[in-house]
Amino acid sequence: MSILRIRAILGSLTVLIAGLLVPIAGVSPAAALAGSSDWKVIAAGGFHSCGIRTNGRLYCWGDNSSGRLGTGDTTARLAPTEVAGGATNWTSVSLGAWFTCARKSTGRLYCWGYNYRGQLGNGTTNESHVPVEVAGGWTNWTTVVAGAFHVCGRRSTGRLYCWGSNNYSQLGDATTTDRLVPTQVAGGWTNWTSVSPGMSQTCGRRSTGRLYCWGNNFAGGIGDGTTTPRPTPTQVAGGWTNWTSVSVGANHACGRRSTGRLYCWGYNGNGAVGDSTNGQRFVPTQVAGAATDWSAVSTGNAHTCARKVSGRLFCWGSGTKGQLGNNQYVDQWAPVEVAGGATDWSLLSLGQEYSCALTKSLRAYCWGYGIGGQLGAGVAETQRAFPDEVAAG
After folding, report:
1. pLDDT tens digits, residue range 300-330?
2. pLDDT band at 32 (very low <50, low <70, confident <90, very high)
3. What is the dihedral of CA 107, 113, 117, 123, to 10 degrees?
4. What angle do CA 142, 296, 57 make, to 5 degrees?
5. Edge-first strand listing for the sheet containing 109-113
6. pTM as predicted
7. Which residues contact 126 (CB under 8 A, 6 or more apart)?
8. What span, in angstroms and rounded, lies between the C-alpha atoms of 79 and 191?
């Protein structure tokens, strides 16, 4: 087993052995905090991040304006800090621009932070510095996903609900009225399987394998071949029935088909579509390289990252803050591999101008813009262009 590369990172000394990021026990810079191998979920937002450990406890870090970290105050944190309440049954978490939502194993949803547009879903516009339950008291939520200023969730009935900002009909209820409580998406369908809200548009997948998007259609973000806003779910062009996932950024979206091929559409000024150009794409356009082994994709503000079956991670689009993780600070119009060449990447989540991911060994890494402390290394950082381990907290 040969050592391919050794580098010091904040939190520990990490060696890349046979494609795996392996921390060396007992070696850590005095100025940084060591990481841990018990993260099962990580989520990136605007200027804050959150993660769930294998013990079911939820931690957040970064900017804490409006109480988005859920710690009961507004003090920023440079390292993971447990959310108020000490619950041990958190199962998923998703971050908006200035707020957070999460699900417990009871099937109940909770949100906290900024609430000017009703994105906490509790019937008010008052911010909260600790988790508050989403209105309705339902115990059958299966999914919650936050966009910039709106949220969508799926219940076990297969119905889809959204709430919060609705100025571009991103809630999909055929109006432009903000909703302070979960409101069912138009159509009444009971076969939604996943959903992804963005800045001012939303996309979702149904069990038929078809994709639908709604809301603002700036630069073709709906993917229906037009720039016409859509107040209700509208099928993405192509009529394909083999979409397996979708992720929406600020003004672009990407989806994977069962063929393992990856397609993106919408705003492409920074190359976020990944087709080797910077021209807008109004319909799903295959990512450069025509690879058939993509396994997951996540979108940020204007960048995209995706994992291959091999466990390798690639990013493209806006890169001026180091969010592509390739040791550079420039845009890329086609996929470039994240520095290190690791082959054990698993879950990934992209924020506004930064990226986070887990390895199969349950270690968490973040890179890109870090001015709010969202990279979580335990020290103040402005930006970083390579994966660095999140502190244990």
Report:
1. 999 999 999 999 999 999 999 999 999 999 9
2. low
3. 50
4. 45
5. 90-95, 99-104, 109-113, 128-133
6. 0.92
7. 115
8. 39
**Rounded Cα–Cα distance for residues 390 and 363 (Å):** 8
> Phi first, then psi: what are they for 187, rounded to 5°?
115, -30
How do residues 137-158 score in pLDDT, each as one tens digit? 999 999 999 999 999 999 999 9
- pLDDT at residue number 14: 39
- The pLDDT of residue 1 is 22
Length of the chain in residues, anyone?
A: 393
Residue 218 backbone dihedrals phi, psi, to 5 degrees: -60, 130
